[in-house]
Amino acid sequence: MVTPDQKEMFDTLGKQQQHQHQVDRVLKVVLPIVAFLLTVICANLNVWSTIFTFVILWIAFYATAIKRLPLWHWVIVLVLYCLGDNILSYGAFVISAFNRQFGTMFIFLGIFAIGRPYFDRWLLKR
């Protein structure tokens, strides 16, 4: 038998899940656009760097903001990608290019990964 308190809790959980699906739908549109705009800023001025930077950003944003996978896993992936892209693009390690690329990608990945619970909470209060 379901008590009134349990029914209220189930209703609240259902509403929370509905709001999270709504945020997911919005993020599925916003994340590729943001990934594309950031690619223009932080790619290393060659075609392959641009393409792979867009792909890595889009996957990392989706994994951390929608699937809610651990942020530190994707920070490691970004570091390895930026190191490889830097060495392949310039033929040697260029610290200024690495700082620009990794710094930009890391900041926005953190914004989406850490900000997701705040987006959910804000939508619930609305």
Helix/strand/pairing class, anyone?
A: mainly alpha
Mean pLDDT: 91
- The N- to C-terminal Cα distance equals 32 Å
Count of DSSP strands: 0
Biggest sheet statistics: none
Which outline best applies? Answer: elongated
What is the N-to-C order of secondary-structure elements (H for helix, E for strand)? HHHH
* Number of distinct helices: 4
Strand content: under 5%
Describe how the helices and strands are arranged.
Elements: H1 4-42, H2 47-66, H3 71-90, H4 95-125
Helix pairs in contact: 1-2, 1-4, 2-3, 2-4, 3-4
Tell me what you see in this structure.
It is a single chain. This protein is mostly helical. The protein is built from 4 helices and no strands. The chain has helices spanning 4-42, 47-66, 71-90, 95-125. Helix 1 (4-42) runs antiparallel to helix 2, helix 2 runs parallel beside helix 4 and helix 3 (71-90) runs antiparallel to helix 4 (95-125). The protein is elongated. The mean pLDDT is 91.
Q: Which short descriptors sum up this protein?
A:
0% strand, 87% helix, 126 residues
Q: What can be said about this structure in brief?
A:
With 126 residues, the protein is an all-alpha fold.
